[in-house]
Specification:
The protein is an alpha+beta fold and about 210 residues long. Helices cover about 30% and strands about 25% of the residues.
């Protein structure tokens, strides 16, 4: 979550407002690690979806003292998930390498990026595992040999429904056709079109 451009822009804005100085101990300089502290949290909000006056700049030491040294083991809620495409992420709780990064939130601690097992344990739910299994099903669906190549794209028969993903020419975007109904949405990548078909099937929309 904290590698996203939206967060980097928001973080720099808060640091600039506070003159790149800890508002609690007044320390500043290259040897001081500055962090953005949220004065309060709103359930469902991402870290950058707050007003400027809801945040302040703290050094890592003051920030840790404010939240407490030990992370809480209960009271976390699920926020979202991101597929990093490889084991290039690390769980902030157990420091194990992860591919799927789950974002969780605690009203007193803030936001944390964790792996699937830690997410389930901290949120006391199976939400991370369920989303992980769904993501695996989606990847299998996208690469499935059930997709039959055609002159302009790929087709698939699901139960009694015929699904076609096609494009009019080589550089054109991909479109979806379900039976005789043509979708309006266009996709730059065929994987994105197949992913939407998966979501429609998984949600029993078709």
């Amino acid at each position: 979550m904290y590698h996203k451009l939206a967060w980097k822009i928001f973080r720099e804005k808060i640091l600039t407002i506070d003159n790149h100085c800890c508002t609690q101990c007044q320390r500043a300089g290259d040897d001081v690690k500055l962090q953005v502290h949220h004065k309060y949290y709103i359930t469902g909000h991402l870290p950058w979806e707050y007003k400027n006056n809801a945040c302040t700049t703290l050094c890592s030491s003051c920030h840790a003292k404010h939240h407490g040294i030990l992370k809480p083991t209960i009271g976390w809620s699920f926020v979202g998930v991101e597929d990093l495409a490889s084991l290039k992420g690390y769980c902030s709780y157990c420091m194990r390498p992860v591919r799927y990064m789950f974002f969780i939130h605690h009203v007193k601690w803030g936001y944390l990026n964790v792996g699937r097992i830690c997410c389930d344990r901290l949120t006391q739910s199976m939400e991370a595992s369920n989303k992980y299994q769904k993501e695996k099903r989606k990847l299998r669906f996208i690469s499935s040999k059930r997709w039959e190549a055609t002159k302009k794209g790929y087709k698939l028969k699901y139960q009694n429904i015929f699904i076609l993903i096609y494009r009019s020419e080589l550089t054109a975007p991909w479109k979806i056709k379900i039976d005789d109904q043509l979708g309006r949405k266009k996709f730059p990548k065929i994987e994105e079109a197949k992913a939407l078909v998966f979501e429609l099937i998984d949600s029993a929309y078709i």
